[in-house]
Write a structure and sequence with these properties.
The protein is of the alpha+beta class and 229 residues long. The chain has a four-stranded mixed sheet with strand order 3-2-1-8, covered by helices on one side. It has a four-stranded antiparallel sheet with strand order 4-5-6-7. Strand 5 and strand 6 form a beta hairpin. Helix 1 crosses helix 2 and helix 2 packs parallel to helix 5. It is globular and about 65 Å long.
């Protein structure tokens, strides 16, 4: 959560950098990371999958988390009132490395339209993928509306193979490219954001292996719900 998902949240929330130079990217990312509000108990749900304590070597009373969901707030004018929902876990229903941006529903709209369907997604695993889901009229003579997706799979759109994740990081270290590495000031702040909970950790909720995590995580997303699958 602290070292991976917080960095992704910073990448999504940051303002446009002056260039794709690693120093400009880092400056934009660390500026917005400095706006992250410290987490409270109401913002976090942790879990442990059923059967974890049965693993050889795991203490019977282990409170080690195998799941965490968090609602992060960014205290800037641009993101006021917009929750950033983060989650990661083991033994889940599916394995994704994904960022989903759900567009705000208009204040006034037509009745009967599907809600929460206008979403821009970024799949970060493999070669990467961008997809856009929008509410649209179904083709044909009727006035039915539905959600439809357009997808850009980078592995098919470009014929240059991507490096595996850790190979890319090692490459960047060798060439001195710090674009994907959070600066010390950003790292210091994200540990402060999580520090209160790390010092007094909440009790993990048990969840079933192959599920989407503990039931308590659903409250963090309120009526909007999580973008899953």
């Amino acid at each position: 959560l602290v070292t991976h998902l917080f960095q992704l949240a910073g990448e999504v929330a940051m303002t446009t950098p002056q260039s794709l130079d690693d120093e400009h990217i880092a400056a934009a990312r660390e500026e917005i990371i400095g706006c992250f509000r410290p987490l409270t108990y109401d913002d976090v749900v942790v879990g442990q999958y059923d059967g974890y304590r049965d693993i050889e070597g795991i203490p019977n009373g282990s409170r080690t988390e195998t799941f965490v969901a968090a609602r992060l707030w960014v205290d800037s004018a641009r993101w006021e009132g917009v929750p950033f929902l983060l989650r990661t876990g083991k033994c889940m229903a599916a394995s994704h490395q994904r960022v989903s941006i759900r567009f705000k529903e208009p204040a006034q709209t037509m009745a009967g339209l599907p809600a929460g369907c206008n979403t821009l997604g970024f799949e970060l695993s493999g070669d990467g993928e961008i997809d856009l889901t929008l509410v649209t009229k179904r083709p044909g003579p009727t006035d039915d509306v539905t959600a439809a997706a357009a997808r850009l799979p980078f592995g098919q759109a470009f014929h240059t193979p991507s490096l595996p994740a850790y190979s890319r990081l090692i490459h960047d270290v060798l060439v001195g490219d710090r674009s994907l590495f959070t600066r010390p000031d950003g790292l210091e702040h994200v540990w402060e954001v999580a520090g209160g909970l790390l010092g007094d950790r909440p009790e993990p909720e048990v969840y079933t292996k192959g599920s989407w995590g503990p039931e308590g995580a659903s409250r963090l997303a309120a009526d909007e719900g999580w973008v899953l699958g």
